Amino acid sequence: SAQLEIGLAATDYIESGATTGKAGLLENEPRLDYSGGASCPSLLLEPSRTNFIKYSEYLGGNSLSGSISFTYNDSTSPEGLDNAALVSVTSANDRLQPFFSAVNGLLCISIFVKHTGTNFITQLNTFNSGDSSLYGAFANVTSSGVTFSSYQSGYDSADFVDYGNGWFRIYVVCQSTTGLTYAQWRPSANDVAISYPCYGFQAEEGSYPTSYIPNHSGGSVTRGADVCGDAGDASTFNDSEGVLYTEIASLTDDNDGSKSISISSGAYSNNIIIQYTTNTNQIVFKTSPSYTTPIFQSYNVSDITENSKIAFKYKSNDCSFWHNGVKLGSVSSFTPFSSGTLTELNFNRGDGNEKFEGKIKQILYFPTALTDSECIKLTTL
Fold first, then answer.
1. The model scores a pTM over 0.85
2. Which of 89, 160, 264, 351 has a CA that sits 20 to 30 A from residue 335's CA?
3. Per-residue pLDDT tens over the stretch 123-138
């Protein structure tokens, strides 16, 4: 039972024969998100991203400065394995600063850190060989959470995710300009000698963090985009009336592209669309421009990154739009589709564009138009 694999720790034995064995997620296996302690997960659909950090867990394999040191496999990481490292530093000059080819735009830097009883201030920032400015933030880590403050040139955004048991994933989105890009982490930004567990350093191009991409290769590692296929056929959908219901959350609330879920004819025509738009925290309900009686109703809501229950009811001269138990609006002029028009459920606008990226808890379709009271019950959180 000999086995050779890339990584820091041995995984379960993979029996091989005439074909190559595979471990982990397979090609058509969905990724599920349990963040926030949810017992019922969400289907996770993310864009393609690249982790530029050469050794995301064997952190000492990257460029170091000062007396920073790591003790590997010291404790249990958020992955549930004993593969977290203990970082030890004595001053703010002790830092990890891997570099890679220039990223000209926004760079999201993230790392998992654990609070073990002592508060500490850490720092994440970027700088470039062609730009002497440092862009980043201080992160004050306490048992109850993380707060951020600007460092020198500041940052675009910053936040954290609580993984429980003292673990936080902190991230900072900051500017990257020309020349080689450096992703710098100072475990102690206030010159205090300290040690604490850490795990999973990541630097990715974009305005928000995606799920952690392990990298043991010595180069960059790219995760392909998640794609959810179409479902249903002409017999599934009622062209005269119905309700498209979604329980979803966006990965971000800014203008990173429209994200759609639709019932369509397999093209960007003759469709029913629920869409997060490029405007901050906006939902649009629409039918395609080529439809006889087009609908384009937009509404601003509080936070599309939070789980939302949304419904689009359509019926002859009776369309209404619902969000978290509230009727956002209605349209009284609507002509039903011709028989056999609606043929499939899409995780895009119908033609493969504006793919939905986010978390999906539930998609339902009702082949009859529900009453207002039923729509309230259906969409109330």
1. yes
2. 351
3. 999 999 888 788 999 9
